[in-house]
Amino acid sequence: MKIKEVEDEMARTQKNKATAYHLGQLRAKLAKLKRELITPSGGGGGGAGLGFDVARTGIASVGFVGFPSVGKSTLMSGLTGTTSEAAAYEFTTCTFMTPDAVTTVPGTMTVRGAKIQVLDLPGIIEGAKDGKGRGRQVIAVARTCNLIFIVLDVCKPLKDKQILEAELEGFGIRLNKRKPNVIVRKKDKGGLAITNTVPLTKLDHDEIRAVMSEYRISNADIAFREDITVDELIDVIENNRIYIPCIYVLNKIDSISIEELDLLYKIPQSVPISSRQWLNIDELIDKMWEELNLVRIYTKPRKSAPDYTAPVVLRRDKCTIEDFCNAIHREIFKQFKYAMVWGASAKHARGQRVGADHVLEDEDCVTIFKR
Question: Any idea where the TGS domain is (predicted)?
Answer without folding.
Answer: 293-370
